[in-house]
């Protein structure tokens, strides 16, 4: 017997949280983990966009990180689900990896002297889209952090991730021989 995807428990505008409790679907917590989930999906589109193998291992690892972030954001009381969250830990090494990757890409890219339009190859355009969704997710997590405890690493991670996605978008164009178009 399979589990049904619908439960009808949210039909009146609220949703259950991981570890218990319910909140309105427009609560800052649901907005934050919903935006992180959307970011994860957009990165999935970027992974599927040709050339699909370009940056794929890195992007898949980011998707796994985003699941971890979303799971923790959906948990107002982490002590209740400690065992389930064990694999959801996010280390500062992930941010350092992003910084190294950005630095390596910048060494390959022409200097940035103007704002660029989010365009070029399909791969680049989807990475730019992921960058803008990442910024929205970051804003939602900042809003949640005003009144609720949020691990500081989440804000640092999302901030650096948007920089990484911007750089990867530029690198995708560069490697395809497509120049960035300036504003």
Which residues sit in consecutive blocks of at least 5 with pLDDT less than 50? none
As a percent range, the share of helical residues equals 55-70%
Q: Under CATH, the topology is which?
A: Hypothetical Protein Ta1238, Chain: A
Full CATH superfamily name = Cobalamin adenosyltransferase-like
Mean pLDDT reading: 88
Count up the domains.
1
At the first level of CATH, the class is Mainly Alpha
Outline type: elongated
Q: In the CATH hierarchy, what is the architecture at level 2?
A: Up-down Bundle
Q: Tell me how many strands there are.
A: 2
Largest sheet: 2 strands, antiparallel
Binned strand content: under 5%
Radius of gyration: 18 Å
Output the strand order for the largest sheet.
Answer: 1-2
Broad structural category: mainly alpha
Number of discrete helical segments: 6
Beginning-to-end CA distance, first to last residue:
56 Å
Tell me the series of helices and strands, N- to C-terminal: EEHHHHHH
Describe this entry's structure for a reader.
The mean pLDDT is about 90. The radius of gyration is 18 Å and the shape is elongated. With about 180 residues, the protein is mostly helical. The chain has one domain (about 25-75, about 90-175): Cobalamin adenosyltransferase-like (Hypothetical Protein Ta1238, Chain: A, Up-down Bundle), CATH 1.20.1200. It contains six helices and two strands, in the order E-E-H-H-H-H-H-H. A two-stranded antiparallel ribbon has the order 1-2. Helix 4 runs parallel beside helix 6.
Protein traits:
183 residues; Hypothetical Protein Ta1238, Chain: A; two-stranded antiparallel sheet
